[in-house]
């Protein structure tokens, strides 16, 4: 094999290995936004990357689908607590799904995380309704890449499923901020019933 052949093979390997996990076709089956928008349960943010300074780090963040407006637009209710208070705040946001890169199906979601706040765009890195575990990732200029780990209310008090945990630990920054605490469900069911 000539030098040109070796260079081509090396370039191909570098291109394949340089693909971010969330855009790697080998994992597209776990990166569909519908795995999140079809969940009929409360989705708690368990933790998020410390590098996501522009995202709120309020405790007890959660969200739940209220309705579907069109194939790519949904209404979600978002919950969070203020650090010094035990009460829960809630607001309704529009969540949209889009397709990025070479994905065949929508793999990205965008929504507000705080009332009156910015709309953030997240790619689905991992989503599995059966496990009740989801990983969202985003890139914020000057801050870099970060992730959010979510679990359903049915799974939030259990260990993170092994496959989901492996994806998070191998593809997300190591420093994390804890968002979910055991007291978070307190008062949440009352707000859910009032807003449903």
TrEMBL record:
InterPro entries: Calycin (IPR012674), Tick_his-bd (IPR002970). Residues 1-18 form the signal peptide. Transmembrane segments: none annotated. One of its GO terms (molecular function) is amine binding. Keywords: Signal. Pfam families: His_binding. GO terms for biological process: symbiont-mediated perturbation of host defenses. The keyword Signal applies. This is Putative licpodalin-4 1. It comes from Amblyomma triste.
